[in-house]
Amino acid sequence: GVNINLATSKTYLTAYTDIGDNVRCVVTALSEQGLSPTNSNDLPIVSQISGTNLAFWGIASDTTSIIPRSSSASSSVSEWISANENGINAVQISAGLQPSTGVTSENGLNTLFFQNDNLYLPSTLNYLPSGNSTIFVVVKATSQDSFLRRIIAFGNGTSPRLNIGYTESSNYLEFRSSSSGAGALNTSFTPSDLNIIRTQRDGSVLNMSVNGSTPVSNNNGLDANDVNAISIGGNSAGSGFSLVGEIAEVIIYDTALTTGQISDIETYLSNKHNITI
Fold first, then answer.
1. Is 170 helix (H, G, I), strand (E, B) or coil?
2. Which H, E and C letters describe 35-48, residue by residue?
3. Is 60 exceeded by the pLDDT of residue 70?
4. From residue 95, how far is each of 73, 80, 119, 142 by CA, in Å?
5. What's the first-to-final CA gap in the chain, in angstroms?
6. Strand partners, 154
7. Could you tell me the CA-to-CA distances from 160 to 136, 169, 184, 235, 252 in Å, in that order?
8. pTM for this one?
9. What does the alpha-carbon distance between residue 141 and residue 144 come to, in Å, rounded to a whole number?
């Protein structure tokens, strides 16, 4: 019923705050008689992403959520605002460790490029490795080495507590969640592709899936109450063994989602990022 700020181009990417609203566009015809604008039909905006227990949702294609807000030129990212606007944002105050926006894209959608950079999530999420969680990351790696490089890491500054990482030279993906950092899950994948990685902890049960595949699982999920650092793209100490590549989207829930909820989110990510699941 009112104009959307800055929505003045031929296309519009709906935002989380549009969910539950109806949107429409103004179509203008030009003839010898002049201009004649009219409103299109209303389109209700619905989402496959449940807002319940949604702790963080980073969308690189929504460049209005990235500070500084730029997708046309390389810029260092100091803050990535969660789409559900809950105040839990990913931040990096050190200019030398900030990832870039506007330099990489996948399927026409902006991505954040990490090269030994990282963004920190606030300490309000330090509780995640001591409870249930479901995490989705759309990521593409470009490094060529045998180091275990972190995509998302929760740690105590020296040891990992909840960790998603990869070794590109061996096409190896790892997920661990335990007080000792032991008992990791691993599976093969192609890190140089754009992948949907999903990890989950449900009590002591860990499971992990790539692009909707049948998950691998074990019973090594143990509580960890000493987390003091949460890093997207880096390790728990903030330097070394970090992602070299692109992140398109990150969705973190502080609960174990149901199979149906997982399917909805993976379908959304598959359709959006053109990834076969």
1. helix
2. EEEEECCCEECCCC
3. no
4. 17, 14, 11, 22
5. 37
6. 162, 230
7. 19, 22, 11, 8, 18
8. 0.85
9. 9
